[in-house]
Amino acid sequence: MSTQATTNVSRKRRTSKDDTTCPSCPVLLIELIYEILSWLPVKSLIQFKCVCKSWNSLISSSDFVKKHVHRSSIDPNLRNHRLLGIDYNLDHKFVLSLSLRSVIDNLSRPIFDESSFELRLGAEIVQSCNGLICWINYENHNYVNYLNPSTKFKSQSPPCFDHPWVFGDVDEPCFTLFGFGYDLINDIYKTIAIYCDPIGKNTMVKVYELGVSRSWRDIQSLPFFPCTNIDTYSEDYGKFVSGTLNWLCLSCDKSLVIVSLDITDETFEEISVPNVATTLDFVESPKLWVLGGCLCFSYDFNKEHILLWQMKLYGVIESWNIFLKISYMDIGPYYPRPLFMWDNNEIMLKINDDGRFIVYNHRCNSLKHLEFRTSNIWIEGGTYIESLVSPYNVGVN
């Protein structure tokens, strides 16, 4: 082979190698690249995976995905936070997402996502966790599905849970409550299903581990019966906070109590609600929420106003404090749904059935009505953060 031909082959080899690896580290240290990329939005990261093999490996790594989730969740500008909206059709509903920042900034035309995904009318969104959304398809053999709306990746061959339509000696259909959360210790996303008989006597609890098992397994039963409205129990899904899932229940003496499931060791504990709200005699429509990383408890008081308590330190009963009090005179005859809290000071709420948003400022004890309305788009599933978490390989070593 001639010298010129050898040189050409060598150049081709160098060119081929340069196509699959990044520039040498003296240009940018890999630690600095890691730091810069971890602050970028998902859309940019997906594009940057095509830069070279080492960037693809870096962005796809479990450590980077977790770092990006953390960065997105604490971003004060809320650039990666989005609202889930449902646009109903005849036999389907389309799940849209819109920029939370654009709603908070009171834009008349908030920024919607470019694409959507489709659900049948019988499907219900349970909740999101680290950008991964869990939803239940009741019309299709009760499948549990998982989706990342930011990457458009959806779980395949989802597990079907065996719904005991007749529970024990009760010849009536039972109903099911769900919860979805992340086991940080074992790096596993878990879905909890609680089967309840219609007369409030028995429960059965099962758990499914995403990416670990292909079947549901039994765990200990709920110590008390869930306090839920069977017509609106989609809002009564377990609330995930501090590594636990939480449901409102009625104790043996018919008083309100929070039952908390530690998602790692799968054991239940009881947490007291604020002392002034222990019985249904004075409390209507009690509900749990998670705002600002804290468990919250709201209820209708005497049809006059809505009270919302915040547990500043999870599990510490003495840390319950009234965070919000809104009169129906200010918002109309609707039970507001808290969606998001930022700066430990402001809460955005959705006014049910009316397509309106309001922002409550805790420091100033003031309300602001937002211009944006969603009269034909129902906000369901609350908020989520954009992330790279995949429904394919989480929890798999």
Molecular structure report:
The strands form six sheets. Strands 12, 13, 14, 15 and 16 form a five-stranded antiparallel β-sheet that branches. By secondary structure, the chain is an alpha+beta fold. It contains seven helices and 25 strands. It has helices at residues 3-20, 30-37, 42-48, 53-60, 62-74, 100-104, 328-331; strands spanning 81-88, 92-99, 117-120, 123-129, 132-137, 143-148, 153-154, 175-183, 188-196, 203-209, 217-219, 225-226, 239-241, 244-250, 256-262, 267-271, 284-291, 294-301, 305-311, 320-327, 336-342, 346-351, 356-361, 366-373, 377-385. Among the domains are: 3-73, no CATH class; 274-364. It starts with a helix and ends in a 12-residue tail after the last strand. The chain is globular and about 65 Å long.
Total DSSP helices: 7
In one word, what is the shape?
globular
| Cα distance spanning the termini | 49 Å
What is the radius of gyration computed over CA atoms, rounded to a whole number of angstroms?
A: 24 Å
Estimated helix fraction: 10-25%
Largest sheet: 5 strands, antiparallel
> What value does the average pLDDT take?
80
Overall strand count = 25
- Structural class, please? alpha+beta
Low-confidence stretches: 5-20
Strand content: 35-45%
